[in-house]
Every structure is written in structure tokens, then in C-alpha cells.
Amino acid sequence: MTESVVPSRRMQRPAIFVCDLQDKFRNAIYQFDKIVLTTQKVLRAAQILQIPVYATTQSVAKLGGTVAELEPLLQSAVCIEDKTRFSMWTPAVQRHFSVEQQQDTGKSDVVLVGIESHICITQTTLDLLAEGHRVYVLADAVSSCNPQEVPLALARLRAAGATVTTSESWLYECMGDAAIPEFREIAKLVKETGPDTKKALDGLLGSNL
């Protein structure tokens, strides 16, 4: 008799980091609104797949809070930390991360979205890689004030060991199996957000990949 195999996700310890998507940057960051669209999709997927979310703001007193479009999707975030450091991997985030992820064994698969690709995203990625975590940088959800900085930053992060990919590719890799219970909801989400994803891909990936 053949024993049945219970479907499981490909990634067992995923986490999502949302970096500094604040109103003050809306008119400064290249294709900012498209980054927000992709981040909304990623955060909706996080709710379906029950993936913990960590978010930061940069000097909120000076630069303002997180954009209104993301606030409803961040209500269940593990933490939203204000920082002055460029890296999201602050002591406060580390403490929350350690408790939530129960890092007594193994490492996490962390996906990064936000700004700026050559500063905060880069430093966060390098810090996470140094801790032994696997890092996925979503090229349709990161940008900078200067679009020429983006492909250079992504090339550096690839060389350092990060995986540079797209939101849809990451979602399906995170699931790994169409037989998992959440697959239908994720497939529906991908279909619903298809037009927004196309806008993000058209606007960002020409130079980012």
C-alpha cells in the first residue's frame, strides 16, 4: 500500500520585511506607486499564508508614516519599528524576529520589499545573509531615487548570495505545491492583481533585471 504524502510548503520559515514605504518618499522614489502595488499583493499573500511581517519607518518624526494604502495590511504585523539606521536589522527587529521565528534551529527565508535598493535594502540584505538567513529581493518591489542605482544594487546583492526574483515567482516558490490548502486563494490573488503586477513589471524590471 502506497503511503499518501501530505502536501507542504516549500519554504518552512518565511518572513516578509517592508522597508520604509513612507509618504515623504512618494514623489522622490522612482516608480514608488508601483512598488506599493506589489507590496499590497505580497501583504495580502502574507495574510493568506500566515507569514509574519516586519516593517520599518525611517525617522518617522521627520519623514512621516507608512503610506495609507499599506496601513490596513500592516495591522497584524509582528512589529513596525522606527529607525535611524539604514538596515532594518535593528536590535528591536532582531528581538521580535527571534521570538516569532523561534530561531533555535534553522534559518528563515526572508523576502524584502521597499526602498532604497542601494542603501536600506542592500544593508538589510547583507545583515540577514551574515546571520545565515536566505534572502529574496523582489525586483518588482524595490527602487531608489535614482533608477540607475537599482540594477547596480541588485547585481551586488546577487553576487552576495541573495535571490533576486519577482513577486509572482516568489509566491509560487513559497507555496511549492498546488495541493496545499491555500493554493486556490493565492492563485485568485495572482489573477486579481495581474494588471497591477504588469504595471510594476513594465515600470521597474526593464532596468532592474
From TrEMBL:
InterPro entries: Isochorismatase-like_dom, Isochorismatase-like_sf, Isochorismatase_domain. Residues 15-168 form the Isochorismatase-like domain. Gene3D superfamilies: Isochorismatase-like (3.40.50.850). Belongs to the isochorismatase family. It comes from the Eukaryota. This is Isochorismatase. It holds the Pfam family Isochorismatase. It comes from Apiospora kogelbergensis.
